[in-house]
């Protein structure tokens, strides 16, 4: 689910030393450049300024380390996990057990590489996903990527459920017209 030789623990230490929760890390090769995506969180949420602070610290560390961790050209992205939060570890799957997720696998499971459904962790540490087609179980190591799916709660009122402005007036006018006849 992430770069094999990239120093994840060093990045974790940098993020946590600045007072943030380290969520995860992705290192991917796209076109002619590498992308390093660092996800972090905080109780009060993450601001652009928070991302800037962490990005500068990580960038400085990458430059100072002198190791050839990445190609000459790379992009560092630091962000909050967002509503469709990526799931990286067994702890993430435990924390969000009962929530809907979208999972991409590196091997077929019952003829599928993509599985969407409600996630949980079985007693043996396997990831379990249940959906309308049944239950699927596989080890964490088979997951290429996983993220929560944002689901709008049905009981919450939205603007479209509210009466539109002017509705009362039209109804009053209609009553007045009926009384006039």
Automatic annotation (TrEMBL):
Signal peptide: none annotated. Residues 87-148 form the Ribosome maturation factor RimP C-terminal domain. InterPro entries: Ribosome_maturation_RimP (IPR003728), RimP_C (IPR028998), RimP_C_sf (IPR036847), RimP_N (IPR028989), RimP_N_sf (IPR035956). Residues 155-181 are annotated as: Disordered. HAMAP family: RimP (MF_01077). PANTHER family: RIBOSOME MATURATION FACTOR RIMP. This is Ribosome maturation factor RimP.
